[in-house]
Amino acid sequence: MTKKMEYRDWRWQVLWWHHFFLLWSTIEAQTRYSIPEELKLGSVVRNLPKDLGLSLSDIFDRKLRVASEAGEQYFSVDAGKGELVVNDRIDREALCGQSTSCVLPLQIVIENPLHLYRLDVEIKDINDNSPIFHAKELFIKISESAAVGTRFALENAEDLDVGSNSVKTDSLTRNDCFAKKLKR
C-alpha cells in the first residue's frame, strides 16, 4: 500500500512541475509605460511589437488583444501598426482619487501559442482642476474691542490635483486691517 501511495505522490509532483513550467513559458516580463491623463482619443502610447519583441504579422495572425483589469477599456491596439492607443478619456482623479500613484494594469494576450504580457500604464496628473473653496462667502463678526493680532481660522482651498499640481499656498489680499498667514 505504501508503494502505491509513493507512486501517486511522485506522479502528482511531476504533473505539478510540468504545469508550472508550461505556465512559466507563457508569461513574459512586465513592461511599464507612463502617460499624462486626458490624452486625446487615438493618441499613441507605444509600439507594442517593438517593445514586446514581436513582428507586425504576429499581431494580426495571433489575434493580439488588450484586456484591462480595471473593467473599462481605456486602450486598444491598432492592428495595422501595432500601436497601443488611447480608446477612452482617462481622468486620473476619477480613477485614483487623491492617491499620488495611479497605475492601470493591462494584460496583452496573444494566441497560437498563448502568451500573456503584463503591462502597467502609469497615469500622470496634469493641472486640470481649479482650486475651490466650499463656502462662496465667509462672514466673521469681529468685535470693535478685538486686540490687534487676533487670529481667525479660515478654510483652505481644496484641489483635486496631486503632487506638484496641487495647491501649495493660498493668500488673502492684504489691506490695512487684515492679513492672512497659511500654515501647512
TrEMBL record:
Signal sequence region: 1-29
A Pfam family annotated for this UniProt entry: Cadherin_2
Positions of the Cadherin domain: 27-133
First-listed, main subcellular location of the protein, grouped into a coarse class: membrane
UniProt keyword annotations, A-Z: Calcium, Cell adhesion, Glycoprotein, Membrane, Repeat, Signal, Transmembrane, Transmembrane helix
Localization, UniProt: Membrane
Topology class, membrane: Single-pass membrane protein
Highest taxon in the source lineage: Eukaryota
Name used for this protein in its record: Cadherin domain-containing protein
Organism for this UniProt entry: Ataeniobius toweri
